[in-house]
Amino acid sequence: MARLDPGDRAALQDLLAASERAFAEIQEILPEDAFPHTRRYVLGLIEDGLAYLRHLLDTGEKVLLSTNRLESILSRVVLRLKRIGRRWSVTGAIHMLAACLVYALHPQRYAEVEAAVRGEHCPGVSILITSLKAAWST
Q: Model pTM?
């Protein structure tokens, strides 16, 4: 997949057509009843490859071939929802999922928001309380 040239549309269309034919043949060959999990796994991998080829043809953009980042984010979501989030409201869980999606899709925006929440963009403030009615801040 990494060696495919997005500019060679004819070769990509031929590859997609041949892959779709092979996919249809594999669907017919693999028994549904004997090994349902294996069949679903193999067909899922093939569908992902076909989706990659279709995306490459439609947009000319390659997508990442590694799922490490996605798996890390999904494990974080599962951890927070199943262990920490048991007592969350529906709104809180949706907001947490939105934050995870921003982290996944726009990591630079997430870093900016996280820095703002931590107060890294704000100047340091020191407060000196001199009495019950007066205080100095700098």
A: 0.43
